[in-house]
Each structure stands twice: as structure tokens, then as C-alpha cells.
Amino acid sequence: MHDRTPTGLERVIANPVMGVEVTFLKAVDDPGGDQVESLVRIPAGEIGPPPHYHLDFEERFTAVEGTLHMDLGDQRGLRLEPGESVLVPRTVRHRYYNAGDRDAVFRFEATPGAAYERATRAAFGLARDGRTDHRGVPRELLDKALMFDLAGSFAEGPPLWLQKILTRAGVRVAVALGRDPGFRRYTEASPHAPDRRPAT
């Protein structure tokens, strides 16, 4: 596997705030359909992202090493041991975390995967720039609105209709102020990125 995708994006990215590392085994610009697959390493004791749900894609989590903990709908504290998996349909509230004493590794699949990959790259980029809290959530309201819109994702709690109104309003303000709604700084390859793929 090359260390960059066909369009030059890095396959391995890290969130320095959460200590999470993602390796894109199949990125959205790889041939073979719209599914994105990644291998995710989450450190011991990491509480993971807040409970949330997605409107635009479903997810499958499969434990590879250690124990992956999840909350899924009304179920709390699910434990996935290596080889065990769970499907998260659209609109179902969930979160993942590691309550163990060693790293956990899981395989993650998103279908379709474009929104997941863009949002993950953007969120990790914001974290590297010091623009997220300890759970990986953007600190600024405008960044948060742009991220929710990019991912098609919403938080547990407030009614969906209210979150949609606030997200749309935030995106309009952000764009009017010159913000990039696609976070292309993080989601597109730099034209100066080296091409490390071997010549064919």
C-alpha cells in the first residue's frame, strides 16, 4: 500500500489531542466504489468523541486488537473483542472509547465514505492547529457548524431541526467571512506534497 492516496493525500493521519491514529486502507479516491475503510488506533483511557449520529452514511466497527468500548443507541458499555463487529445504521446515536489499559485497534468502514473521510481529515487538521477541545470537537462555533455540515453529523441532545437551522446559519456566516466550508487545507493534497509512489 502506498503512503499516499491517488490524489496525494496522506494515508496515515494522527490527532495529537486525542492520541488517535487513522490509516486509510481504502480512501475515497481509491478505485473500487464509495466505501472508505480505515484502521484506527485509540490509546488506553481515551474517552473518544461525544455521542453523535450521522445522516449520510452507516458505519461498521470491527475490533482488531485490545477491547473497543462503544455506546450504541440505548446500549451502554458494549465491549468488542478482536473479531467482533457492530453495524451502526444512519441516525443511530453512538460513540466509541477505550476503557482498557492498553491501546485498542479497530477496523472502520463507512458507506458511503466520502463525508467520513473529509470530516476526519478536517477534524484531525483542526486538532493539529490547536482548534479543538480534548474530545476533538472544534472550539469555535463557526468551525463546529462547518464540521457538522461537512460530515452530515449531529450531536446527541438538541432536536435535529434546531441543529440543522443553527448549522445552516453558521455555514452562511462562515462563508460570508471567507471561511472555506470544505476545509480544503486539510482535505485536499498540497500541490507541493511529494509523490512517494513508485514509478510504473
From TrEMBL:
Residues 39-106 form the Cupin type-2 domain. CDD domains: cupin_RmlC-like (cd02208). This is Mannose-6-phosphate isomerase-like protein (Cupin superfamily). It comes from Catenuloplanes nepalensis.
